[in-house]
Amino acid sequence: MKPSFEKGIYLLPNLMTTSALFAGFYAVIAGMNGYFEQGAIAIFVAMIFDGLDGRVARMTNSCSAFGAEYDSLADMISFGLAPALLIYQWALHDFGKLGWLIAFVYTVGAALRLARFNTQVGIADKRYFQGLPSPAAAALLAGFVWMVETNHIQTGLESFFTLFLTLAAGLMMVSNMRFNSFKELNLKGKVPFVTLLLIVLVFVVITLKPAVILFGFFFLYALSGPILTLRLLQQKRSERRSKKRKASEQNETEKKETEQPSAESDAP
Fold first, then answer.
1. CA distance to 232, 249, 264, per residue, from 241 (Å)
2. How many CB atoms sit inside 10 A of residue 206's CB?
3. What is the pTM of this model?
4. Where is this region: Disordered (predicted)?
5. How far apart are CA 139 and CA 145, in angstroms?
6. Ramachandran bin of 10, using left for φ above 0, alpha for ψ from -120 to 50, beta for the remaining angles
7. Which of 40, 46, 68, 188 is most exposed by smallest CB count within 10 Å?
8. Structural domain boundaries of the chain?
């Protein structure tokens, strides 16, 4: 029998994905024309639409294989290619061949990160991401560009820090470090009234210095990966040690139990 193919696509979630793709494409065009601040903002806009498409699909019960593949391709453009080209046009072109090679390392890291994520759907632990998520890596680079351009920072070290930041982001995407996915947060349940006020306060603080605060947030999120990974490794080691102790204690008790009957049988 021939495989049956679904006719048509779901409009609303794929419209969100298309909007994210458009924002990523605009970031490339803005970077090529020297509008680096607008390009960085466009990457953050792509992040918003990328976060909405999956939630809209689940809320409207319109998840599909086509939507998943389309979302992955759009992520590659918006969070893999667009940040690399933007950061190259902004600072890395000063390093010549080294600059575009570092930008390529980032692009390959994003592609490998997305491919690994797609193959581990339903298998990996949902509490953690394996490797830095590509949207967070893109926000790290775009946030730095936005912060420097908005505040007119000129120390002479921006290009070198950009080189290090791009390489680090590309390598962290393909690493085995664990990053919190925040998927355990229950957004459907009831929360205290104070929580809503705190959320409003967070938005107010972000609007004061959006570039600085967003870059600082994603920079701290990137640093949380190595710290969380070390904590998880320590927990695993302590669990192994406790298991070994329990096994050794159990063996000692079994030896004592076997020695006692033999001693009683040898007694006159």
1. 14, 12, 35
2. 14
3. 0.84
4. 236-268
5. 10
6. beta
7. 188
8. 11-183+199-240
User: Which pLDDT tens digit goes with each residue over 84-143?
Assistant: 999 999 999 999 999 999 999 999 999 999 999 888 877 777 788 889 999 999 999 999
How many whole angstroms from its chain centre is CA 86? 19
Long-range contact pairs involving 62-67 (C-beta distance under 8 Å, separation at least 24): 62/10, 62/12, 62/13, 63/13, 64/6, 64/9, 64/10, 66/6, 66/9, 66/14, 67/9, 67/10, 67/13, 67/14, 67/17
Residues forming a β-bridge with 180: 128
